[in-house]
Specification:
The chain is α+β, with helices and mostly antiparallel strands. The protein is about 15% helix and about 20% strand.
Length: about 400
């Protein structure tokens, strides 16, 4: 029997091929060419097309109210105000510059507001003549632990361009305790589950991805953007489950798009929730371009980037990674309800994950691996990918 022959069992137990005329299993309805459970599907709650404002559907009813003003038969183009009548665009206009770790965009220029005298503490806040900018505040001298180098108050214990002394540049870009150090491998992990639904085995994929960081309590910077509430809460539940199983903890701080590059300076993990409510591919690509410089530095110094993906009106959240030149999978296809299998049980992301499991609601496979390791696979493509970045 071929390795994937077990897939034939799945088709008899789940939904048939979602094409016109296809039939769904008992308890499911065909909506937009897909078999869905109207009692729990946030995009089709109680009836096809009746989307819930927060993505949560309970027994066919939206607790937070419907997303579409036009009712269950309204087109997606008829979407009205969200969140109690306030319009919520997919993304705000991106800053005019793509900045590195610890930097902010001020007048189309990347600066570190902790040390820049012309933008001390905030863009446009200039120090007086004779003053220096120390830890974001103007004053006559640098704070204790900081050294004045070329007019800037710097921490020589961790500055890769002034490591231990002014002007000492580390070839690896890593300065630890005032000494240049060799780097640690970074990681890029793409997960084809958006976690609108949770199940113990699948949850370990998300938790393992976050705890790929070797830190006892990883500091996680999260970008929510246009993610649904159901997806965000599902990821948090999954990671909390694994944290409890391993007696570990994690700290999550969510930030806006233009705050990511500065926030990553002190982070161990960057988490991008599945952008389920986004509609424009260009907006996702713009995020990758905005963060590309910082993410290159972040992964090469040992940072972990975890991106979740799932079905949506756009072509995939993976496009953020592609535009940042970290991982390009070429497309994605929904495989909700299909049986999946571990492709590499030895990978750290596979720890404790069942050898085979069914992809919960909102699972996708990817068209290509771009050279990354396939951790969880569908017969026709990878669902979870892991790339190691060597400094």
């Amino acid at each position: 029997m071929r390795v994937w022959a077990w897939l034939m069992l799945v088709s008899s137990a789940g939904c048939a091929s979602p094409v016109v005329g296809a039939e769904c299993a008992a308890g499911y309805e065909l909506c937009d060419g897909r078999c869905v459970d109207l009692s729990s599907d946030g995009a089709h709650c109680g009836a096809c097309g009746n989307a819930c404002v927060d993505g949560v559907c309970v027994d066919g009813v939206c607790p937070g109210g419907p997303l579409l003003d036009g009712g269950p038969d309204a087109d997606v183009g008829d979407m009205g105000p969200r969140d109690g009548g306030r319009d919520r665009p997919d993304f705000g206009p991106p800053p005019a510059c793509a900045c590195n770790l610890g930097e902010s965009c001020c007048d189309a220029t990347c600066v570190d507001v902790d040390i820049e005298p012309g933008n001390c503490g905030a863009c446009g806040n200039a120090c007086a003549d004779g003053e220096v900018c120390s830890a974001g505040s103007c004053g006559p001298d640098c704070d204790d632990g900081l050294t004045l180098c070329s007019g800037l108050c710097l921490d020589l214990s961790n500055d890769p361009n002034n490591c231990g002394s002014c002007g000492n540049v580390c070839a690896t870009g890593i300065c630890i305790d005032g000494e240049c150090a060799i780097g640690f491998p970074g990681h890029v992990i793409l997960v084809g589950h958006d976690y609108q639904s949770n199940r113990e085995g699948q949850n370990r994929v998300a938790g393992n991805a976050i705890f790929t960081s070797f830190e006892a309590t990883p500091q996680v910077v999260g970008y929510r953007g246009s993610a649904t509430t159901a997806s965000v809460r599902g990821v948090e539940r999954a990671v909390d489950q694994v944290a409890a199983e391993r007696a570990r903890s994690w700290d999550l701080t969510t930030v806006e798009a233009d705050e990511v590059t500065a926030a990553l300076d002190d982070a161990d993990v960057f988490l991008v929730f599945a952008q389920g409510d986004a509609t424009a591919d260009d907006a996702l690509a713009d995020l990758g371009a905005l963060w590309s410089v910082a993410l290159d530095t972040f992964t090469r110094r040992g940072g972990v980037v975890v991106v979740f993906d799932g079905p949506a009106m756009h072509s995939g959240t993976w496009q953020v990674l592609a535009r940042a030149a970290l991982l390009d999978v070429g497309g994605r296809v929904e495989v909700t309800g299909d049986e999946l299998a571990l492709a590499d049980p030895s990978d750290t992301v596979a720890f404790g994950v069942p050898i085979r499991y069914v992809g919960e609601r909102a699972t996708v496979r990817f068209a290509d691996t771009d050279g990354a390791q396939s951790v969880v696979a569908h017969p026709e493509g990878s669902v979870v990918l892991h790339r190691t970045v060597v400094p």
